[in-house]
Amino acid sequence: MRDRALIMGIxxxxxxxxxxxxxxxxxxxxxxxxxxxxxQVLAMCGPPTLVQEWDQTRVAEADLPDGTFVEPLIxxxxxxxxxxxxxxxxxxFVRFENGVVSGLQTxxxxxxxxxxxxxxxx
Length: 122
Known about the structure:
Largest sheet: 4 strands, antiparallel
Strand content: 35-45%
Strand order of the largest sheet: 3-6-7-8
Order of helices and strands: HEEHEEEEEE
Number of helices: 2
Helix content: 10-25%
Radius of gyration: 22 Å
Structural class: alpha+beta
Oligomer: single chain
């Protein structure tokens, strides 16, 4: 009986894997992938549980018409939406750049369900 409960727990965990082999995340209304827009993510996944945002400073290279070369600094906002659909699913993170999905990542594996054990009293 204990082995059956362990196997069922492992199968339940494997069924919750969010990122598929082709880089998609399954949401309640469909799959999202890199290149989708924020509106598409909202339509497929609903509103995020948490929104985090930070700015990334980058060097942009540019050739000016007069032949000079400059490397101005630009600031690129980096919003990340966090989705947490409950204790039986992985938390996943959707990172955007210029309103388009630039990265998908799953979070920590949820803890396995507690197994009932007979522990003798000491």
